[in-house]
Amino acid sequence: MQTYLVGGAVRDELLGRLVTERDYVVVGSTPGEMLDKGFTQVGKDFPVFLHPDTREEYALARTERKSGAGYTGFVCDASPDVTLEEDLLRRDLTVNAMARANDGTLVDPFNGQADLNARVLRHVSEAFNEDPLRVFRVARFAARYAHLGFTVHADTTKRMQQMAASGELATLTAERVWQETRRSLMEPDPAVFFTTLENAHALNDWFSELPAPPSACYDALTRAARASLDEAQRMAVLCAGLSTDAARQLCQRLKTPNTVLDLVVLASRFSEVISAPLHDGAAILAVLDGADAWRKPDRFTQLLTLNACVRGDNTQVSAAQQQLQTALNAALSVDASAIAKSGLRGPQIRDAIRDARIRAIEQSMP
């Protein structure tokens, strides 16, 4: 058996980037031999094993043949006679289809190094069209490497357009699409993920709510990335200009975590309201109540921070953010439990807490 370092580790090593994960392909072996050597099998659809010491992944060289719709419709052959080149042929992009032998020799049958130097993301072969998830993977790599000057090759974009037109993107599971999306949101240029999908005519199946042209939300998303906002905040920035119903529908289609959904809905509901200072304590209290700032003050702070990216850094937004944060701190200082024990009953308690919070907020206002 022969082992080769493959994929992202080889690519990033050649780019001079930090390599954090290493994956290997094993040629000329069988599941039985791998188990005998102490490896642990983890792959369900094809044989993938964990090294007994390093816990790094070792996959048997394999070929795949399309057998049905979607990204799971494949027949896999991982027999010992599958060659390294045959394994690399099934990969998505030439820059991901390189391998390095144990002696350091670079194996590059599809000119991935040349494409790295040319800053081009190019499909490897006709097999690219067989996996609709690759449309989103290419867009993610574009978002990761755009700052290095990488662009998607025109022929690859054309293939992505064909795949979108075929209807196969709709066969993907929400979990897989969200996984690519969430990873892309945290890339250096997350807006490029969406512009790449837009160029491929691939937004409609999963992101139909985004406006066309959506340049404003893309600019806001770029600001969110520059500000190092987290995943939920970046998704909320993207969706802040949508109606609450549209934002909720988009997140539900993608099956985002509830933490993401909740912040997205809050941003779509309150982004415009909190973009300039409010004029009275009752109006401010209505925002704090609606955003459930009492139980989730940290989430409300997230909302204020992301809204600065949505609206751009300007005096009004900064003033509104400071006003609301100060108001929240003031209102939180009201001892609601003491009011509840003061002898009042039912609605009287609610009204007294409300009045006390309004007074605290107004006293905090300049």
Mind telling me the C-alpha Rg?
26 Å
Number of helices: 18
Unreliable sequence segments: none
Terminal Cα span? 75 Å
Instruction: Please indicate the percent range of residues in DSSP E strands (runs of 2 or more).
Output: 5-15%
**Helix/strand class:** alpha+beta
Spatial shape: elongated
Order of helices and strands: EHEHEEEEEHEEHEHEHHHHHHHHHHHHH
- Profile the largest sheet: 7 strands, mixed
| Lateral arrangement of strands in the main beta sheet | 3-4-5-2-1-8-9
The helicity comes to 40-55%
Average of the residue pLDDT scores:
93
Number of strands: 11
Jot down its keywords.
tRNA binding, RNA-binding, PolA_pol_head_dom, 18 helices, CCA-adding enzyme, alpha+beta, two-stranded antiparallel ribbon, 7-stranded mixed beta sheet, EC 2.7.7.72, 366 residues, 52% helix
Question: How would you describe the overall organization of this protein?
Answer:
By secondary structure, the chain is an alpha+beta fold. It has helices at residues 8-15, 31-36, 84-89, 112-118, 133-145, 154-166, 174-185, 190-199, 204-207, 215-226, 231-239, 244-254, 258-270, 281-290, 297-311, 315-332, 336-340, 347-364, and strands at residues 2-6, 23-27, 40-41, 48-50, 57-60, 63-66, 74-77, 99-101, 106-107, 120-121, 151-152. It has a 7-stranded mixed β-sheet. A two-stranded antiparallel sheet has the order 6-7. The chain has a two-stranded parallel sheet with strand order 10-11. A hairpin with a 6-residue loop joins strand 4 (48-50) and strand 5 (57-60). It is elongated. The protein starts with a strand and ends with a helix. The mean pLDDT is 93.
